[in-house]
Amino acid sequence: MGKDELKVRIWRGGAADADGRFVEYAVPRQDSQTVLDVVTHVQRMLDPTLSYRYACRVGMCGSCAMSVNGQARWTCRTHVSKVLGVDGVLEIAPLANLPVVKDLATDMSGFFDKWAAARGQFQGAQSRHDDFARVQPDTPQRKAADAGIECIGCAVCYASCDVVQWRAEFLGPAAMNRAWTLVNDVRDTAQQERLRAVAGDAGCHSCHTQGSCTERCPKGLAPTLAIAGLKRTVARAAVKGKL
Length: 243
Hints:
The protein has 2 domains: about 5-105, Ubiquitin-like (UB roll) (Roll); about 110-240, Orthogonal Bundle (Fumarate Reductase Iron-sulfur Protein, Chain B, domain 2), CATH 1.10.1060. Helices cover about 35% and strands about 15% of the residues. It has helices at about 35-45, 80-85, 110-115, 140-145, 155-160, 160-165, 175-185, 190-200, 210-215, 225-240, and strands at about 5-10, 20-30, 65-70, 70-75, 90-95, 100, 105. The strands form 2 sheets. It has a 5-stranded mixed β-sheet with strand order 2-1-5-3-4. Strands 6-7 form a two-stranded antiparallel sheet.
């Protein structure tokens, strides 16, 4: 392989393929080359059967997330030069902790089902006929919500979570981060139901606080802190007999 070529190993296989495997490709090296550029080159120029997912290409949608050299990342914002191992090989695989549809594309339905199980939907009391609710931006509740509200559901934290790997029923950091933003939303009317949802065996107290979700979040959010906040809020509610 020449110095102007990049050695790439890409995981290939389907949902029913128990013999999924890594396949090697040689890709031209380019300046400012991203991992998504590499995958796109393979699919367009070398193997049109390769399946993967992406949309915006600029770090806004999160749909291009994959495992790159063993770590979940947005491939559109990850430059090859920053992640090459000592062997100079780029290894690309589907996100961990999610079922594979085909090759690098994973089934996200279970991930979003856990958002729903954590009562991640806003529930208010006002209708379109009411005046806008006014929330002061400097209140403690709003500041707590602001800290986690920019999550776009890319599942990088979920794929990085060891507890999800050990306990498939664990709600995961993204779902509980979303629950925490709503617990701090003074307009929401489903607080008790939400606390009950995250207080169960699959909820916040199953988190081991290893911090992988916070370390890997491409948006710089801290799901670990959100989960800690849920633990405190659930404990206070339990002491007061509200759960």
